[in-house]
Design a protein that fits this description.
This protein is of the alpha/beta class. It is 44% helix and 16% strand. Strand 6, helix 8 and strand 7 form a beta-alpha-beta unit.
Length: 217
């Protein structure tokens, strides 16, 4: 049985791609640049807001990343909880893990303020030990410092933490922190990427996470 379950946010707990796409496309349109179908943003996410904006810009216009980031950040904070939805069974999973005595955390490459906003909106009443998004204080995933800081804050021992995510970035992040990674197949990247990256577990439902976290599988 693990003592700490740390979760990625986008593509793991919440399907946020529609709000992400809407904010980025709003910025692109405002800048007079071509927009993208929502499906394209499944490949743009994973490495933080700067990379989303950089990837969304056409070749030859990457110098506009900072400008797009500014528009995106403002628009996303205004409208980030309009089109997003928690994945099926996730809230019940978090409730059961908490009732079983596990500590819960969210560790995301989404900017910290955005991470806190989405988590507080979609999971009111869930007690998280830590909700941590990207900031200047610590390097982003896949560098391990964010997860290591959460582990150190709780005084967890080696082997007591499980990280749950949906992409190769999450697997690399967990492994850099010497933590096993549980990959969710319903996320933005799919089973194949998780298998190639070497996730210790891959699941198709929230109920399977509970069994693994509690040492029942």
């Amino acid at each position: 049985m693990y003592k700490l379950c740390a979760f990625d946010l986008d593509g793991t707990l919440v399907d946020t791609v529609h709000d992400i796409a809407a904010a980025a496309n709003y910025g692109l349109e405002k800048m007079g640049l071509p927009t993208h179908p929502t499906e394209s943003y499944y490949r743009f996410v994973g490495n933080g807001m700067q990379k989303i904006c950089e990837r969304a810009l056409p070749e030859g216009r990457k110098d506009k990343t900072e400008e797009l980031m500014k528009i995106y950040a403002e628009r996303y904070m205004e409208r980030c909880c309009e089109l997003s939805e928690p994945y099926e069974g996730v809230r019940a999973l978090l409730e059961r893990l908490g009732e079983a005595g596990l500590c819960l955390a969210v560790v995301s490459n989404k900017p910290h303020e955005q991470t806190v906003r989405v988590v507080s909106h979609y999971f009111p009443g869930i007690e998280f030990f830590e909700v941590l998004g990207a900031s200047e204080r610590l390097p982003r995933k896949p560098q391990p410092e964010m997860l290591l800081s959460v582990i150190a804050k709780g005084g967890f021992l080696e082997g007591e933490t499980l990280y749950i995510g949906d992409s190769d970035v999450d697997v690399l992040f967990a492994h850099a922190a010497r933590v096993p990674c549980l990959g969710v197949s319903w996320g933005f990247r799919g089973r194949g990427e998780l298998e190639s990256a070497g996730a210790e577990y891959i699941v198709d439902s929230a109920a399977e996470i509970e069994a693994i976290a509690l040492g029942l599988k």
